[in-house]
Design goal:
Number of helices of chain A: 15
Low-confidence stretches of chain A: none
Largest sheet of chain A: 7 strands, mixed
Strand order of the largest sheet of chain A: 6-5-4-3-2-1-19
Radius of gyration of chain A: 22 Å
Oligomer: homotetramer
Shape of chain A: globular
Structural class of chain A: alpha/beta
């Protein structure tokens, strides 16, 4: 069994891993890395996205390594674990290189993938296979069927799966992006039973594991906690003639559901503003997982948004606005409002809830500090960090390993500094560094 | 109106404030400051507590300043806001100085006061008056009745009250130790209606306000959040033959209630160990606020505790132990166990939940770091910080001021550094430093 | 004696304090506060400076309070302690309001003041009086002479003085911006003898004191240390064909002197680039304190600078460039180079020394992080923080108070949070809060 | 070439590395790890040191791995780089296992080794070889001479060397514990010439490198800086009738030299107190590197020390005391004084300089916080952190690698978290993780 750690092993982003057993290769995830793109956007307008450009600025994984290895033609499938851009966002530019590989994902993830294809006007010829969580799928391999199990997991968007390739040489478990959530608000809780069963049967030879927060000495709280914090934050808004905004992650359907439910109690009309909110809400609806769509109004186009904001400026007590901009991103609704690029002006006593945390890059910290300072100076009442992360802490990771009992561990999802504490945790659990715990970097091969 | 800020204005502890209107003085709180006591205990064994000794080490407020001011004989009442030691712990040693002052508190606070008197073998001759939250009480003053309103508030123990002295010169609102909690698990939610009514009527001339977390830019989460975190933490303990300990604040009756409720689901027998747990649980029961007392077994005496721990060591899967020691305090149950002073030994796979945060003094940080390190090295599975504070953040404080609309503000409950951000907040809200915001220090007088 | 704390008591910037004894008022400092100006510059081009505009954005002290107090006509003198903009930068816009007040400063400070007047095309009619350190000067007061002593002090520019007004009601000591430096590289060491003599004679009734670093538990190191660090940093640059840049504070003449001396050893030609460097270097030269002027070439105008940078790009090993931009300021030489706005391009192996620290505002942190990241990605070898502050730490402040033995203390130069630790220090030294330590805010009066 | 990273690759302490080329093994360093010993001392009195006990508590490197590898009999030499305990302190207990290996070190290092042997009453039969820096030595190998070059380096004690084994398979450079110091106060500056020469000749196949501060983005300052800081700190002590203490690292001979030189100016008699100061001062003197020994009085035995302290208590202005206790270590002079275990009592105005930094373990932080708090409460004037580290920062490490141009790099001296940034630095310099940068852990083998 050989594992090529293509991307996401030196940064948080552009996750991509290829596994080869015999003459068959399966790729897991094909994400994008946004910081170089954002930097470019600051310098140039009207950037034209292309595979060549994205490779040059290193925004997509350097999968050309597979050509050198002679693996490219052996790729039978590309499995995408969930709908976040650092897992699926590179695929539109890379899929054409693997025309015989089918793309496998849950329906929601596939919807998001297709909406990116539409937006970017890209078409792919690969076979698209929608699978369900807790199902088994067989891919045609060089010498027979390749069996993959998809196991439901809990994270911060819907229809997330772990993937387990049950190969002749043992199971390879792709365990990226999860926390152990017993009350996930939408979808099933974390599947303790299934995971333990795999552990008992000694099914897993190698675990590739989300190590982002392996250094934080905690169990990550449930989405239920975020829901309750949100309820308290929203019910503390009592000035009925003032504006009321909430901003959160567009892909976080469960969070949006909570917002709408508590929003209904305010008797305000609920308006969703911004392109990315549209994309994810419609994707969820297309797969039957948007119970709140009839209770909201969605606005996407700039003209429509600006016209609404003009109306809102006069009648601010009538609406609850859910919008983009929680990281202070350029061009987001909140960014445009705070820079006076729309007809709406925040006033003393208006309310703004950030159902998010600042992703700790200097860019975001600085953008949010400026935005927050400006809004506070106008008298806007801010409530920030009404949020719980979707990534497990050290104790979630410990639980997964203890239940799953893999023979080998490969820390993933971050830089060496973020992965190193995963080594310490593994050593605590009896593993040995450079024997059955393997630190890697982008483009390297691990043989087991 | 003159306000003497006797104690708690240079440290977190020994809160005491006296207010004089005409010829009548009312004292609010009479707390103790523990660090000098703990330091003494490290150097000497068998310390005999006495007023003289506590004054010498500055563990109790220096109320002798009232003698100099000629206020001592004018003290008509001592009002205690809630049952924490930094509010009531100094009273046993000071009450005798004010024989004509009645001591006024809620039933639970009074129970705790009396249990300290019993433990320390002190008796006081003052009249003891039990009042209810949301009631009005009249004290005999020099020229007529003095009216005090007691307003329910939400904090981290039960039966906490704000006190408002409706004097001829305007209202003085003693607003220490609260957060705005809409779902407090036990007792009523924060009384928005009453507080707003006081603000509308312009009732409050001066607000003395808890400023401990005036520098933290947040609303403190509800006790409901702690309850949910606890539920998740407790349900994640699945190894049925291993020991299961929880430690929390002994006075936190609502938290203990949650622990017992989730504990019942484990089918383990629930045992409470430690003297301070006994004290608070019985006090709560005596006032009819301990719904869980029949579901637990309480052990107080060392022999009883040690005998139980011996049994536990053999039959570790049978019990859920709730005990003292969350700050690593010397002599607590966890301290004694971790130093091998009992027959119980923690083993690999045992569980320990800290439903608390470390109170950030070097002493505690160091004690807990040592304890945690030792326990981890034994393989004990720790879950820490399963907790939410009882003190409001900057946004809670902002809310209280905006609703109450006091004419003057006196930041309390902390050192100058902790009180200074309260000045900034007040300035944001239109107050002026040294005009109607008054920073003080222990023993000073403010005239309004 | 009444003291009006006009500006600089709620921020680091726009220092201004007025003192009234009998019918005579003396103003100490009249600085500017740059952050609102910088913010404005980000939004608008070609800003026209005016008193009105600077008042509106709160960049200059609100000295209109003196009109309300009836003090304006009584101002006999404006004393400027040293040449930094937060002490002298507001004066050009305010001086006209006090036409009968003479402006008193050391020659270097006066040169800098006049160069600002020239740049901004402002003329003032006030009498300009140049005094020397360690001299006494008499101003005409309402009933006789007002005696002021000027005492040399050590800071991070040249010709800095403390001012002591020896009034009928006792001495008022204006003690802003100093550290106790025994080896200041340029100028005399800190005057222990004089300060102790004042203390012995009980000369000082009130001390207004720099409290910026009252919370840092240290003595600030001497400028000699910065000089040595610089020597090591500069001698570690060994690649002779690569570019070599140094950036530092333009007003820091002693530092520039060290740079030139060590620069001479590199055999490179030393070029100073940027307008503010020109301003301060010529001011120093005009007062005979620029021993290095013949060893450098100064370039000020953009065309001249750009032409030089073009040449440098081809012949990078020939020059040592001293330039502006250590805080990543917009429009500075380093900013323009790093944004490719000049013909010079940094390359792998080029050298850049920051003989400065980042002034901890989010704006600077973010600007420098971006700049540093970009430069590092080009392979530029950075050496940062080759610097020692000019403001004393807690131990310097303790020394000054212990030697000077003032009866009253007013913490200055910062926000409440920065001044509060000065109160703690004073309490340690036996002073009492709100008795003889006085916290203030902008526009308030303290009566002693 | 095989390298066995025996100890110091998972902690800061017990450094030990074995290298095998053909049938010859050379061991570099054999240090001790103190924390488990200190922990033990807290629990038990009169601990008897033994190899068995030290192995059990993991205080010495687990070199039994060499038995398993069959290397033990092939060990030809044990080379010790310098005299610190984490490099030489394990050797007394391990040397007997390698009777045919000669022990090679500089004279000072050997003196310290022998003084430990004397103290612990251990004798070793190995041949002891004293070498000089910048010399070449040949060891008898299985098939011929093994050539080792010793290269002077700069650190925080005297006579430190890098060792380069010029083997048939290429050079192995043991580069632990250094900073690039151009003005080291004692001894020669860092040998740029020699290092560059090795780089030019392509002499180094593998570099084992001190990575302790690879995460700190700086060049470590020269010992000259510490000397100047010390001069300022000592000259700021002016109260001639008060006590004057300085504490520093006992092995830091250059620092002690500076202390004595500046101490002479105070006209006080200079007294050295404490056993470890004696050990290192005599070791330095024995090798002719203690120029100050005639200017001081050394006291070692408790009776002598206590008798002196009694005298000092009465005549405190007469002496300058240099003593142990800068980390608040139990049993040190400062510890005993601050706990009132001697006849000397610190009083208001006494002076204490810490020419050291706190080694950041919780134990030390806590011990020092307690000690400092107590001393401050007595009015002792503390000056802390009058110190510069002996370990290089990221820029020193970058310089060494750029000059030396090794083909492989093995980060050493710390935990994985401390070594991981060394990987990042190496990648910046063109190396590749898991190709020619090798992370290891205790007891592992790296084959090159």
């Amino acid at each position: 069994m050989e594992i090529c750690t293509i991307g996401g092993y030196e940064q948080v982003g552009k996750n991509m891993t290829a596994v080869k057993v015999g003459d068959d290769v399966i790729i897991f995830d094909a994400g994008i890395y946004l910081p170089p793109l954002i930097e470019l956007q600051e310098q140039e307008n009207n950037i034209k996205y292309s595979e060549e450009m994205l490779r040059r600025i290193k925004a997509i994984p350097n999968d050309l390594v597979l050509d050198k290895l002679g693996w490219t033609n052996k790729v039978r499938a590309i499995v995408i674990g969930h709908a976040h851009l650092d897992h699926v966002g590179g695929l539109p530019y890379l899929a054409h290189r693997y025309p015989n590989a089918e793309i496998i994902a849950t329906p929601f993830t596939m919807e998001v993938f297709q909406s990116i294809l539409n937006d970017e006007k890209i078409s792919v010829k690969n076979k698209l296979t929608r699978i369900k969580a807790n199902s088994t799928y067989h891919i045609k391999g060089s010498k027979g069927k390749l069996k993959i199990e998809f196991i439901h997991t809990t994270h911060s968007t819907i229809q997330c799966v772990f993937a387990l390739w049950c190969s002749d040489e043992g199971g390879i478990f792709y365990g990226l992006d999860f926390k152990i959530d017993q009350k996930p608000v939408m979808g099933e809780p974390f599947p303790f039973g299934k995971i333990k069963e795999l552990g008992k049967n000694n099914s897993v030879k190698c675990l590739i594991i989300d190590s982002l927060y392996s250094d934080t000495d905690r169990r990550t709280a449930s989405e239920r906690i975020a829901r309750n914090l949100l309820e308290d934050a929203m019910s503390s808004v009592r000035n009925k003639d003032k504006a009321f905004f909430i901003t959160t992650f567009s892909s976080h359907i469960a969070r949006l559901k909570s917002i709408v439910e508590f929003g209904r109690k305010t008797k305000r009309e609920i308006i969703f503003l911004g392109r990315s909110l549209n994309k994810y809400v419609y994707a969820a609806n297309n797969v039957g997982m948007c119970p709140f769509i009839k209770k909201i109004k969605l606005m996407k186009y700039r003209r429509q948004v600006d016209s609404f904001l003009k109306k809102l400026n006069k009648d601010r007590g009538k609406y609850l606005v859910v919008c983009t901009g929680h990281q202070g991103e350029k061009g987001s609704i909140l960014d445009r409002i705070s820079k006076n690029q729309t007809s709406f002006r925040f006033k003393n006593g208006d309310n703004l809830i950030f159902s998010s945390s600042i992703i700790p890059a200097q860019e975001n910290i600085s953008a949010r500090e400026k935005m927050d300072k400006k809004l506070r100076s106008l008298g806007v009442r801010l409530q920030t960090d009404i949020h719980v992360s979707g990534h497990g802490g050290r104790e979630d990771l410990r639980d997964l390993i203890e239940m799953l009992k893999p023979r080998h561990i490969i820390p993933a999802h971050g830089s060496l500094k973020q992965e190193a504490p995963m080594v310490d945790l593994s050593v605590e659990l009896g593993y040995k560094f450079n024997e059955n715990i393997h630190l890697s970097s982008n483009g390297k091969i691990i043989k087991i």
